[in-house]
Specification:
The complex is a heterodimer of chains A (about 280) and B (about 100). With about 280 residues, chain A is α/β, with parallel strands linked by helices. Chain A folds into 2 domains: about 1-110 and about 215-280, FAD/NAD(P)-binding domain, CATH 3.50.50; about 125-215, 3-Layer(bba) Sandwich (FAD/NAD(P)-binding domain). Chain A has helices spanning about 10-25, 55-70, 130-135, 150-160, 220-225, 260-280, and strands at about 1-10, 30, 75, 80-85, 90-95, 95-105, 125, 140-145, 165-170, 180-185, 190, 195-200, 205, 210-215, 230, 235, 245-250. In chain A, a hairpin with a 2-residue loop joins strand 5 (about 90-95) and strand 6 (about 95-105). The longest helix of chain A has 23 residues, at about 260-280. Chain A is globular, with a radius of gyration of 20 Å. Chain B has one domain (about 5-105): Glutaredoxin (3-Layer(aba) Sandwich), CATH 3.40.30.10. In chain B, strand 4 (about 75-80) and strand 5 form a beta hairpin. The longest helix of chain B has 16 residues, at about 30-45. Chain B is globular. Chain B starts with a strand and ends with a helix. The chains are: A alpha/beta (about 280), B alpha/beta (about 100).
Chain lengths: ~280, ~100
C-alpha cells in the first residue's frame, strides 16, 4: 500500500508529525522501534512539558502512542534498512517494502560514530541487515555487534540458518541464546584486506568472514546520502524541509535543544509541511 | 522484455560476448533487493539494444554468488567485454548506475 506520509522514527517528533498529517486527512505510517525502547521512555521525570509536569518519560510516551493510534496512524515496528528516493519514497524493513509520497525523518539522535573499518568494509563483510545478507555467510564465522534489544534475536536467526555466530556487546544480554558464544567488549575494530577477516574486540582478534552491526537505527545519511547535515545534525529550514524535495526532518535529529517540547513542535510543523507539499504536488 | 534472468549457463554465455553487461545479484528474502528491482527493470528498458541488463538470484545460483564473492545484496556488477569494470553495493538511485553505463558504452 502507498501512504501519503512515511515517518521514520516513533518518538515524540515522529508521532507528532504523523498526528498532524492525519489531522489533514492524510494516511501516515510510522516505522520505528517499540515505543517502550525509546530513550524518552527511560526518563524518570519530565518537568518542562507544558501542562503535564512531573510525568515519567514512559507515561508521556504511552499517551503520545495512544493519541497517534486513536488518530489512525499505522505502525510498523522495526528498523528501516534501506531507502530509495525514486517515484516517491520506498523504505524496507526486513523483507518488506513500504511506499510513501512524502518522507519525514524523526530518528532521534543517531550515534554517527562508526567502528574503525566499518565504512571501509561495508558490503565487503560488514552488513547492517541479518535478513538480507545472512544467507551469504552460511557455514562461515560471523560476529554480531549487538546494540539493540532485538539483536540477540537476529543472532539466533543467523545461527539457525547455519552461520557460526559470536556475539559481542559491552554486557551479555539476558535474551542471548545459551548456545551462542559471547565476548564482552567495549572497543570494536573491523579488520581485513580485500574483505573482512577479523574483528578486534578490546584488542583481541576474532577471525571471521562477516560482521553484523546492529544499532537501534541507521543514520539518516546512510539511508539517504544526499541529505545535507551541519555539525552532525540534519539541516532544515523553518518549515522543517531538508535539501531533498519531499523529505522533512524533525526532533533531535535536527539539533539542540534535545527536548520533548521542541520535538513535538517540530514534528507538528514537519507533518503540516509534508501535507502542504503533497497538496501542491497534486494540485 | 529486455531484462534477463540468468542461470549459470546463460550468464556465462552473456559474459562471453562483446559489450556491456550489467548484473544485479539479488534474492527474494532481501528487502533492499526488491527496492532496487524496478530500477534495474528501468535500466533494462532504457538501454535495450545498447547493454545487456540482467539479474542473478543468489539462492538459485549459489556458485555464481560464490565465484563473484557476493557478500551483501543487492550487488550490481558491470562487465565490459567479459571483464569486471565496476561494482555497486546496496540501494542507490538510478543515476548512479546510469553514470557507469554511459561512461562504458
Amino acid at each position: 500500500m502507498n501512504y501519503d506520509v512515511i515517518v521514520l522514527g516513533s518518538g515524540p517528533a515522529g508521532l507528532a508529525a504523523a498526528v498532524a498529517a492525519r489531522g489533514r486527512g492524510k494516511t501516515a505510517l510510522v516505522i520505528g522501534n517499540r515505543w517502550q525502547d525509546s530513550p524518552l521512555a527511560k526518563a524518570e521525570k519530565i518537568d518542562n512539558y507544558l501542562g503535564l509536569p512531573g510525568r515519567s518519560g514512559y507515561a508521556l510516551m504511552e499517551e503520545f502512542q495512544k493519541h497517534a493510534e486513536a488518530a489512525g496512524v499505522k505502525f510498523v515496528i522495526g528498523r528501516a534498512i534501506s531507502l530509495m528516493a525514486w517515484n516517491g519514497y520506498t523504505v524496507t524493513v526486513g523483507a518488506d517494502m513500504y511506499q510513501g509520497s512524502a518522507l519525514i525523518m524523526a530518528p532521534g539522535v543517531v550515534r554517527q560514530t562508526k567502528f574503525p573499518g566499518e565504512q571501509e568494509y561495508l558490503g565487503r563483510g560488514v552488513s547492517y541487515c541479518a535478513t538480507c545478507d545472512g544467507m551469504l555467510y552460511r557455514g562461515k564465522d560471523v560476529v554480531v555487534a549487538g546494540r539493540t534489544p532485538d539483536a540477540p534475536e537476529e543472532a539466533r536467526f543467523l545461527q539457525s540458518i547455519g552461520c557460526h555466530v559470536t556475539y559481542t556487546a559491552p554486557r551479555r544480554p539476558d535474551t542471548l541464546d545459551e548456545g551462542i558464544p559471547f565476548v564482552p567488549a567495549n572497543r570494536i575494530a573491523i579488520k581485513g584486506e580485500q574483505m573482512v577477516n577479523a574483528v578486534s574486540l578490546d584488542g583481541q582478534d576474532v577471525p571471521c568472514a562477516g560482521v553484523f552491526v546492529l544499532r537501534a537505527s541507521l543514520a539518516p545519511t546512510d539511508l539517504l546520502p544526499s541529505l545535507e547535515t551541519e555539525g552532525g545534525y540534519i539541516r532544515v529550514d523553518r518549515a522543517m524541509r531538508t535539501n531533498v524535495e519531499g523529505v522533512f526532518a524533525c526532533g533531535d535529529c535536527t539539533g539542540a535543544p534535545l527536548q520533548v517540547a521542541k520535538a513535538v513542535g517540530e514534528g507538528h510543523v514537519a507533518g503540516l509541511s509534508a501535507c502542504e507539499y503533497l497538496d501542491r504536488k497534486t494540485a | 522484455m529486455a531484462l534477463k534472468h540468468f542461470d549459470e549457463a546463460s550468464f556465462n554465455e552473456a559474459l562471453s560476448r562483446k559489450g556491456l553487461l550489467v548484473v544485479d545479484f539479488w534474492a527474494e528474502w532481501c528487502g533492499p533487493c526488491k527496492l532496487l528491482g524496478p530500477v534495474i527493470e528501468q535500466l533494462a528498458a532504457d538501454y535495450d539494444g545498447k547493454a545487456v541488463v540482467g539479474k542473478v538470484n543468489v539462492d538459485d545460483e549459489p556458485e555464481l554468488a560464490q565465484k563473484y564473492a557476493i557478500m551483501s545484496i543487492p550487488t550490481v556488477m558491470f562487465f565490459k567485454d567479459g571483464e569486471l569494470i565496476d561494482k555497486k553495493i546496496g540501494v542507490m538511485p538510478p543515476q548512479e548506475f546510469v553514470k557507469v553505463i554511459d561512461a562504458n558504452l
